[in-house]
Design goal:
CBS domain Like, Hsp33 domain, binds zinc ion, six-stranded mixed sheet, alpha+beta, 291 residues, single chain, elongated
């Protein structure tokens, strides 16, 4: 069995201008849920977002960060998923008012979805707006790629509490009209992917099972890890944004103020001395050290 966990497996079809990738997240996905109690419908959307963002990030041709952000007035107040071109992933969701199971459409009612591609300090980030439509995040992303990015794509995502994943198929530029039937056929096959198929990992065996009639060239797997980008400096920035008065008030209760990262759950404490230093005129900057 050639299967890989917490990995992306890129591939191309030998006789069709179609490339793709399979992703499976297990440890990274379970780590992302640590410290959070998500309703099943939120968990599913978060897992789909994790798999989709990983699939988009693996296609980056430069060093950068993909951020998918859903926010709205519906039950899903906020969902953020980030993946670097090194496939370091983090994400969280917030749906404080959700009490019952909700369908995807109910969850994301009036939500906006943006995908930001940040290529680093040298370039301005690019942002695409994804219209949240249809029955799933995958549908919305397929629409986005077809309309805005002009890259016909099939996306199918699966999620369970123990593992999540998905498949991305994209037409390569040398599109020929003879492809239509095959393209439809590949989309139907990709949509047969079930959570059980990826529970143990992804790889050449699964591709052989999904696309038994096609020659598929499989590239080496790339590992995906959970990694948070929070730092002491970012925690200090949170307190600076909160303001001196509010921070001092929070500090007065326990002689310290705690800033907990919503992504990884790490708490950084600042005592009264730290806080007065933070707001003093001669600010000594903390190091921007990523743990
Ligand atoms: Zn963190």
């Amino acid at each position: 069995m050639q299967t890989h966990s917490d990995a992306v497996v890129p591939f191309v079809f030998e006789s069709l201008p179609v490339r793709g990738a399979l992703i499976q997240l297990q440890k990274s996905w379970q780590r992302m849920q640590l410290g959070h109690t998500y309703q099943m419908s939120v968990l599913e959307t978060l897992g789909h977002a994790a798999a989709a963002t990983g699939l988009i990030a693996q296609s980056l041709k430069f060093d950068g960060i993909i951020t998918m952000q859903l926010s709205g007035d519906g039950p899903l107040a906020m969902l953020v998923m980030q993946c670097t071109s090194e496939l370091e992933l983090r994400g969280m969701a917030s749906a404080p008012d959700l009490t019952d199971h909700a369908s995807f459409a109910e969850l994301v009612a009036q939500a906006r979805c943006a995908i930001t591609v940040d290529a680093g300090a040298m370039e301005r980030p690019y942002q695409g707006i994804v219209e949240v439509t249809g029955a799933s995040l995958a549908d919305s992303l397929e629409n986005y790629y077809a309309k805005s990015a002009q890259i016909p794509s099939h996306i199918h995502l699966v999620c369970e509490p123990s593992s999540c994943g998905g498949i991305l198929l994209q037409q390569m530029p040398e599109k020929d009209s003879a492809l239509e039937d095959d393209w439809r056929r590949l989309g139907m096959l990709a949509a047969t992917l079930r959570p059980d198929d990826i529970a143990a990992g992804v790889g050449i065996d699964l591709l052989g099972k999904l696309f038994a009639a096609d020659d598929v060239r499989v590239f080496g797997p790339r590992p995906v890890t959970f990694k948070c980008r929070c730092s002491k400096k970012r925690a200090e920035d949170v307190l600076r944004m909160l303001g001196e008065k509010e921070t001092n008030a929070a500090c007065a209760e326990k002689d310290r103020v705690d800033v907990t990262c919503e992504y990884c759950g790490r708490t950084r404490s600042f005592d009264t001395v730290d806080v007065s230093r933070l707001f003093s005129e001669h600010v000594v900057e903390g190091t921007d050290r990523v743990h």
